[in-house]
Amino acid sequence: AGDFYQISNQVTLGISESDIISQFENVIIPEIVEYENAARNQLLSKESDVLDDKISRAMALLRNAHLISSQEALFLLSHLRLGLNMHEHMGASTPAIDTLCRLIRQGGDADKRQGLSIATINRLFMLTLPAHLQLNYGKPLDPTHRDALRAKIIRSVLNG
Fold this sequence. Notes:
Blueprint: H1 17-46, H2 48-64, H3 70-90, H4 95-106, H5 118-127, H6 130-137, H7 143-159
């Protein structure tokens, strides 16, 4: 719960594009959503301490790290996104989720002063990828400089 899925189709010979899309929309995606919701309910009802720990650790690392890899940033940001999503769609309330909600009300996004939101986290996912960092910086960056710039961007957004 909270990470990304990549869905691909290995068999396409003899199947029309519209049939493939219909299969995804009507069978595969609803099953994934059902599994995801069951996992979230399990986390909330039986493992809320684990959920809180993941969200709290993610927030602490993201708000304070000075070097962070793409992989670690995506992993930790997905925990924040999970907490916000569970609050918005399930009404979930735990100490860590409530802290995230306070950031929403306080306007934790330095760029737009709109607060921390799923949209803000989605934007961070994109802005902190290696190619985006280098494009926005205007030149190629070695991995250490990318990790430092990524951490700086995330800190500025999460700390307001």
